[in-house]
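Progress note, sequence design subtask.
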């Protein structure tokens, strides 16, 4: 297979982790007989420095002409004082909206090798966590009508959803539930918000097409609590843009390390998907060879699975990551409280070495 992948390294640790994911993608291409052509996209703070804005139209165009896009992260203190329209994070909204990737898939998986990094008690976690959050990504309050009064003392943002916007997310939630444990939980605030009540009506309608899936509902406040109280009750969660934003960060924390979690943003399948680790640009460790590249490498695996339908290749990456962890290799963030033992065993590694190890294990 020959495909074009747009690389959007971004800022901070973004370029470091994307470089390692590219090495892994190249190793997959070699092993399975594929060819990837890469295009480079400048976005975020890097684009502000180069072009004066976070996502110039022609940079978005490069993504749209590709078969898939892999993003590192954007942002950093250098650009924190700019007006909100000019901030690096605007590039994220521009990419998501421009690429029409309306669903964000965030698997929150606890790797058994990293169980110690999970802040929850053993009896809560049991033999592991595997939750898939399907977050609506191009609608709701982040894209709704907003404003600030002339005197600056009143401000508003609007949560607005249409039936088709909700239906495609809920349907995706049912579809993934069918290939997993057949449980879907819709998270909302239907006791207060009209838009949430529409989410429930739509879910009830779509449910008729998936009689095997057990559908439940939770209010966002309760769901946030349940996620730490009894996370194993969840299989697939479908929710709005803002609630999904909050829940997926919470879910990432209970799995242990932000440096391990990948995400996929996908649309109706006619355009390229956008793949990225869930962490930010980590300015505190940028350029120090300290960043864990595994979240980005696992995002590359999702890219192969969802955009190119290459399940064996995606699994090969995930298996290589698992084998590297089995053998005790750790970056600082996942060594956690065992850091001294890991160091003494000579298995504490940096960004580059971790990337090389995944390639090595992939080729075994
Ligand atoms: P962050 O995710 O960048 O960092 C939070 C903490 O986690 C830091 O201590 C960091 O060192 C650590 N960390 C993050 N990724 C890591 C990795 N791969 N390996 C090891 N440690 C890792 O969040 P933040 O500090 O709140 O934000 C920093 C910048 O990133 C801000 O400008 C923010 O706006 C931006 N940001 C971008 C995205 C994105 O591009 N999708 C997402 C979140 C934040």
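Output:
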């Amino acid at each position: 297979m020959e495909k074009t992948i747009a690389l959007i390294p971004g800022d901070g640790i973004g370029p470091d982790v994307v470089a390692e994911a590219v090495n892994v993608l190249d190793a997959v291409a070699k092993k399975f007989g594929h060819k990837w052509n890469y295009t480079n996209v400048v976005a975020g703070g890097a684009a502000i420095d180069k072009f004066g804005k976070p996502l110039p139209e022609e940079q978005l165009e490069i993504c749209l002409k590709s078969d898939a896009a892999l993003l590192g992260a954007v942002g950093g203190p250098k650009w924190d004082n700019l007006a909100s329209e000019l901030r690096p994070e605007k590039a994220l909204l521009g990419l998501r909206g421009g690429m029409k990737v309306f669903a964000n898939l965030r698997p929150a998986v606890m790797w058994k090798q990293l169980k110690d990094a999970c802040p929850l008690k053993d009896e809560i976690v049991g033999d592991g966590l595997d939750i898939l959050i399907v977050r609506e990504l191009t609608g709701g309050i982040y894209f709704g009508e907003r404003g600030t009064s002339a005197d600056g003392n009143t401000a508003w943002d609007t949560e607005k959803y249409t039936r088709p916007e909700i239906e495609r997310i809920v349907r995706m939630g049912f579809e993934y539930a069918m290939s997993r444990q057949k449980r879907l939980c819709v998270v909302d605030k239907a006791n207060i918000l009209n838009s949430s009540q529409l989410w429930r009506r739509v879910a009830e309608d779509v449910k008729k097409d998936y009689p095997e899936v057990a559908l439940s509902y939770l209010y966002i406040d309760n769901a946030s609590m349940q996620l730490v109280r009894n996370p194993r009750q969840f299989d697939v969660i479908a929710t709005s843009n803002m609630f999904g934003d909050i829940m997926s960060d919470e879910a990432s924390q209970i799995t242990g390390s932000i440096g391990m979690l990948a995400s996929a943003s996908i649309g109706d399948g006619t355009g390229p998907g956008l793949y990225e680790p869930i962490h930010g640009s980590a300015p505190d460790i940028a350029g120090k060879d300290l960043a864990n590249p595994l979240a980005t490498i696992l995002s590359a695996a999702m890219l192969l699975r969802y955009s190119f339908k290459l399940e064996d290749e995606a699994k090969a990456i995930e298996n290589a990551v698992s084998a590297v962890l089995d053998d005790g290799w750790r970056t600082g963030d996942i060594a956690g409280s065992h850091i001294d033992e890991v160091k003494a065993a000579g298995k504490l590694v940096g960004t580059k070495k971790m990337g090389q190890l995944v390639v090595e294990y992939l080729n075994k």
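The domain at 1-99+271-364 is CATH 3.40.718.10 (Isopropylmalate Dehydrogenase). Work on this subtask will continue into the next period as scheduled.
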